[in-house]
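Audit log entry. Action: structure prediction of a protein-small molecule complex. Ligand: zinc ion. The ligand was supplied as SMILES and no pocket hint was given, so placement is left entirely to the predictor. Protonation state taken as written. Sequence taken verbatim from the request; no trimming, no tag removal. Recorded inputs:
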Amino acid sequence: MVALLLTAGSLYPLLRANTIRAGKRDTRPYQPRRRILVSVSSVIPLSCAFWWRSTNAYLPCHWEDTKRGRITVPRSIIQDTSQDQASGSPREVLMSTIKSGRVHVISGGYPPGALGGHDMDYARLRLLGLLEEQGLPATVGNDFSDIHRWLPGTQLLITYVAGPFLDDDQNQIVRRWIDDGGHWLGLHGTSGGKATRVGSGRRRRMVKTSHHDTLGGFFLSHPPMRKFRVDVVAPGHPLTKDLPESFETIDEPYMIEVQHPSETQLILTAELGPDDSPPGSGFEYDEDTALQPDGKTRALGFTRNVGEGGVTYIALGHCSPASQSQPAADPNPEDAGGRPAGLRATWESDAYIQLLRNAITWGMV
Ligand SMILES: [Zn+2]
């Protein structure tokens, strides 16, 4: 507005100068000193307008936001927080992805406060520690319910969740943010979400939603935890920098259905073979669409570009509280790494931490 006023202020003397030159209304004799004065008075406000514009372009969140455009947030996802109420339920959220250097970390289970079988505090601390290493400021959340408040100004979103998922409205916000240049690193249970009961029994089946379309992966189920070899299949990709050709870990062998195969680059796979879950365990599914055509390979890490941003998903990364260790596929503890089944073996491996460091770098470019 100030720039507009300054520009308007500069136009008046210019127009006035034109009328003097054309002699349309000003019948006074030609006055060189008066013309110089008018010219100078035009230049000063015009310069001020340019100065104002250029200065504001580098202020965080303001001018750049309006350049990026906005997205209307449906009232259904506006939370009853004091801030939202004070501002009269904001209908618009700025979706700027300016290079703020900030990372938003979401780590949590479902229902709110529950762990969802994972050591959320451990995962959150490790992720924050990796960000601190690189001097990156972070904000944190426990689910996606207030995502519209934190994404503006966020450059990288990292999620380690077991239960929470983006509903359609929240997905629309995240999708727009990625299109504008945001990067989303989804870890482990991020490919899950809602499960519905099958018939009247105890079996459940995962529900595929727009969340999985954006993430690019959908969790079907997983057989019992085990020790297995992970193959790094994208040598030379920034996400696999300094990773070995393969590494071993103890983790849940996730069955992930890749949503956009033609646009997706696999970075991690494992030859886990067909689902060997004991009868009655795991989740129901119609067809094992996570198994590659060779009948043995499964995708455990992949990335794809979306708009000006991108999404990377890494299925590895189980960590559970000691009180919730699972039965392992390997009956001999030594075969399973000599410790209670898969507490946090992946998080303790150099390869996984290097992969996370690479992913953070990928998201902050
Ligand atoms: Zn897990």
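Audit: result stored. Confidence is low (pLDDT under 50) at residues 17-23, 48-70, 74-91, 330-339. The two ends are 33 Å apart (CA to CA).
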